[in-house]
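Reading is simple: the token line describes the chain's fold. The lines below illustrate.

. . .
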Amino acid sequence: MTIKTEPAGYIIGSTSRIVRFLQKCQLPVFALGSERIHHFVLHGQGFTLPLENEEKSLIGFYVNVWVAAPGLREARERAVARVREFWSDFGYETNAGGQPAIEVAESSVLRDRIRRRWRTGFAFYSEE
């Protein structure tokens, strides 16, 4: 009797690529129980992110973030923490020499209980 070994499945790309892909996936936001969905426009600054083949560097960004939380203070902390985590996970922290100073530019509370994604893309700006 001959036993054949066949693969059960294949992994495409390296593990780090798979992890990076999953991190880029936009997850929905659900407000459960007493939680509400809070929307923030966050402004990050206090860093210098060099651009390849450019004399200018990026010095700030704006990003929309939605989080579910029972109160405004906790929602703000969650939103800032998510942006800081994203900043670290994708190497911006290393390239920019640290974490940005993040402040809330705008905030609001939504009536909706579900939001399709937790953030939009970063809108970076340079010196000029």
Q: What stands out?
A: The chain is about 25% helix and 35% strand. Helices lie at 15-24, 72-89, 92-96. The first strand starts at residue 29 and ends at 30. Residues 7-14 have pLDDT under 50 and may be disordered.
